[in-house]
Target: Calcineurin-like phosphoesterase domain-containing protein
Amino acid sequence: MLRGAGRNAMLIGASCFTLPFALGVGDLHGDLDKARCALETAGVLSSDGQGLWIGGETVLVQLGDILDRGEDELAILSLLKSLDIQAKAQGGAVFQVNGNHETMNVEGDFRYVDNGALDECIDFLEYLEECEHDWEEAFVSWSAVSGRWKQDRKVSQNYWAPWNLVKRQKGVIARSILMRPGGPLACELARHGVVLKVDDWLFCHGGLLPHHGNKLISCPVFWFIRIHVNRRSYMIINVTAVAYGLERLNREVSQWMKGPSEADDSPQMPFIATRGYDSIVWNRLYSRDSPELEDYQLDQIQSLLEETLQSVGAKAMVVGHTPQPMGVLEIRDNKARAIRSTRDWSSELQVADYT
Model:
């Protein structure tokens, strides 16, 4: 049996894999305290505040939208990176997929950025300078020191600080340096795709549709890691090996985030993956509240879902993106699950068990 837990801004769901244990984490939106709480409840993060991975061979998948609305975005990204390093040493792994708020920020759309998040960008650039611009050292260790920087900043602030337009402009500039295509944080996000396939389960932020992966190839190229557990080997594929369309979209989103290169001096933002109501990061078809739908609409959605899964050789899909006031939403036959709960909906932990 696989288990999951979540609180307020996120609900952690779990799904049956051939891997020993797997968890999916929904939108976190810059809320470090609740992210820690959820990860501790799920049994993968130590409760002593040391940021230690205690999940053993567990595979954790974060479904995107770490950015915006909260003030500890970089700290969460740093924590997940640190946990991934620790998890791989124990035979586990931490994966992320990018959501619409990641692509929006790389595009320069800062409409939903919290003022505290702009301050965090300023602090992090100063910390990066202290680390002599060693990105890996600064980024991995930021979650451990960000609280002190945040506290020092708040102590020095005066009453008018939230309305300081000059400081806000400085924060926007700092964020642009980090997030613009080719910027260090954009390149960090470029390491993650918009869709992840773990065995025969798909993970993405909004949801896949048949046209996202309708070009098949006979000789796919794999980007994978192998985990060896009890003398058995498991493959975790970071881009689908079945449909050329999905592999291509992951690659193109990554290239766009990395910015101009010798091979492509002006990479375009992949519209089908990142823009439009039916793109992978914006699609809400599978996460609409079931009581709002008629039976014939559910049948149509089920048909599209089955066609999508068949086209990429998967048996089920896990998505986030759309708030679920009642918790985990399932589309019949356990084929799709939406695992994002409404932010601040309740103060109670919700646990979802799947067998």
In short: The radius of gyration is 20 Å. The mean pLDDT is 78.
